[in-house]
Amino acid sequence: MATAVAYALSFLVTFGSAVAGVGMFAWQLERRAGFARRVAAIAVVGAAVCTVLLAMPAPAAPPDPSDALPYPVQLLMFSALLAIMVGVTLWLFDASVWTALFCCTAGYAVQNFASGLTELVWVAAGVPESADPTLRGHLVRFALNVICILAVYVPFYRVFARHISREGLEEVSDRALIVIMVVVMLGVIGFDLIIKDMADRGLPLMYEAALRGFHGLTCGLTYALEYELLVSRRLQVERATTERVLAERERQYERSRENIEAINVKCHDIRQQIRSLADGGTVVDRGALDDIAREVDVYDSTVRTGNEALDTILTEKSLACRRAGITLSCIADGPALDFMSAADIYALFGNALDNAIRAVNELDDAGVRSISLVVRRVAGVVSIHIENPFAGSMEMRDGLPVTTKDDRTGHGFGLRSMRLTAERYGGTLTVLAEGGRFHVNAIFPAG
User: Fold this and answer.
1) Span 349-368, pLDDT tens digits
2) Quick one: DSSP state of residue 306?
3) Of 191, 215, 240, which residue constitutes the final position of a domain?
């Protein structure tokens, strides 16, 4: 019975620490429908495995290290477990393969580090696993496992994992993660199996401690590499957004300058028409007047709210709306958004207005093709309200609409990104779809 309990406890430690390691990163991701039922199904499978292990007959003698499974088979088994964890993550969370791969490889690296620390502490204590084969001995080892796992996981979460946002995870798309997965399989899992096999065959404590140190360094470097990929990706997105803002600002200036020049030319033409009238002419060229009206309309599309980033994105989207025959009405207190970075303002309003323009473009009735936007500071908060009509029905999940695009891997993150941006500044974002109108509301504490 004691041996069966040992197998069950070993499974619980391995399974539980692996789930906790992956969950440390994946818990922030968007959960799929029926998440609770899916988790319950995984718990049932785990309980079934424990039941089978408890029912296993005890071996007549302690296992001989030479009877262990061949190294390639063990490596394949644990690598397959990593691949299964990626599949389970995708089953539980609405994420891309690359995001799931990041969460699992990073979590696996942390789990292996905690496992190696447990083995080292147990051997350093001078109590081999076979010294107390009773149920009490197995429970003591289980308690040591839990203590070592907590000693690694808690500080790691507080220092590193909790600072990784859902937005950052959803932006993971670097193909270098395939290389990292190979590193985890060979450098982390494979190295750990080699050390365990050598320890079972009588490796001196000093050498085992040195190898465990190198193994821990491998785990740390693996995570550091993944974290660097994540941070680099975030910086690339921010840099691209900033460059986009600056480029659009320059284009806005050029458009304004060209529009002013065009209006000057048209004014010269109308002066000629006026002179013609003064000299006895009777007709003003209607085409010239229409051209002037069009030039003035474009010039008037330049938005000035008092916030450069907001001016840039609203001018860009205002021109897009004019070209699409959409009315964009805007009342915005630009300085109220000075607490936000230019990149976040551009991304927040860009995503919101892109979604609104896409929805309104599907409407045939020109009389309802309109978008309204209000930004104001009131009662100690800054509020953003964007409203537009839409056609058809809308499926909601976790308070956000589900993307209608066929490719859900690369789409549907716009509103989630907006919500994360709001939360990063201590605010909230809610959406409402009713009566054929779609409302986006964001509330921020006023600085």
Assistant:
1) 988 998 899 999 988 888 88
2) S
3) 240
